[in-house]
Amino acid sequence: MENVRNLFQILARNFGLLNEQCCDNCCGQEVSLVQSHILYEINRQHQPSMQEIAGALGMDITTFSRQVKTLADKGFVKKTPHPADNRINILSLTPEGLAIENAIHLTVNAQLHGILSTMSEFEKDTVIRSIQLFNDAMQKSDSCCVPPK
Amino acid sequence: MENVRNLFQILARNFGLLNEQCCDNCCGQEVSLVQSHILYEINRQHQPSMQEIAGALGMDITTFSRQVKTLADKGFVKKTPHPADNRINILSLTPEGLAIENAIHLTVNAQLHGILSTMSEFEKDTVIRSIQLFNDAMQKSDSCCVPPK
DNA sequence: TCAAATAGTTGCAATTTGCAAATATAAGAG
DNA sequence: CTCTTATATTTGCAAATTGCAACTATTTGA
């Protein structure tokens, strides 16, 4: 009841390790862990700008700019000028980028399901619903998870 | 039921942001995020060696060695040669290191409780129990969360 | 007693990071 | 319409982080 931090710290660490390993396994030296986060978020959003993705990930925009350039050079991400505002670049995944994102997604998802498979149906449902609940609560709380300005 | 990855990806990301912000807020330029992870794990284990902490965090031992040196130079971590084996260094927090770790712990814990406070008692309990359950399942699963050899 | 194993540290060289300053474009005031 | 200001993104640069290979120091075991 008290030590909530421990739970989340360990969870986040373990998921991070799993994520990193999966990333290594499915896409070899193709993309780094942070780059995989970028692919993930571009895929998730609808015609996002650089700012939007960088903001969602809490990344410094200059660091982000360079990482996107790397991904674009590798042919995984495409930058399209916004039709109504040339300052803005719309980001999208190329077919190759999408393939990598999908590979990572399937691998991570399979690992997670493997872990959940040790539980009863009821427990599994409860765990999933709980995390959903917590994510929603986090989203609503503006005191946190808002990247610094 | 299907898309478990999304849930964990977002959870881990948001907790990461929260963790980072807390770290900035309580200890200013004192320690970086990775260094805070090191303090956390040293505090958690009982007379740990370098290998044990680096292993738990999935960090490369050489990177870890340098980070520990930085922390030792700052006076937050102490390295004590193992009495029975001089190759091994036992790591421990200095009072200053412990103070920082405690400050981070309290801040993160408070934030998390703030988020949980928007839920009913029942929901709160369920969420906490669920994460406990999942962490245990992860620990048992040897297919993941085992840093690459 | 000496060859292998183990713990940890350094020498690089590449990558990543973020602040400050620059560029490019758009929007608004007059 | 023109000039100031705001917004989006990129670069310069210098510091911090990373990891592989090689090295040192100790211990273990044949």
Automatic annotation (TrEMBL), chains A, B:
The answer to whether keyword Ligase applies is: no
Domain HTH marR-type residue range list: 1-136
One family from Pfam that matches here is MarR
GO terms assigned for molecular function: DNA binding; DNA-binding transcription factor activity
Q: What keywords tag this UniProt record?
A: DNA-binding
SUPFAM superfamilies documented for this protein: Winged helix' DNA-binding domain
Instruction: Please give the start and end residues of each transmembrane region.
Output: none
Q: Which domain of life is it from?
A: Bacteria
Q: Cite a single GO BP annotation.
A: response to stress
PANTHER family, per this entry?
MARR-FAMILY TRANSCRIPTIONAL REGULATOR, TRANSCRIPTIONAL REGULATOR, MARR FAMILY
Q: What is this protein called?
A: DNA-binding MarR family transcriptional regulator
* Protein's organism: Paenibacillus methanolicus
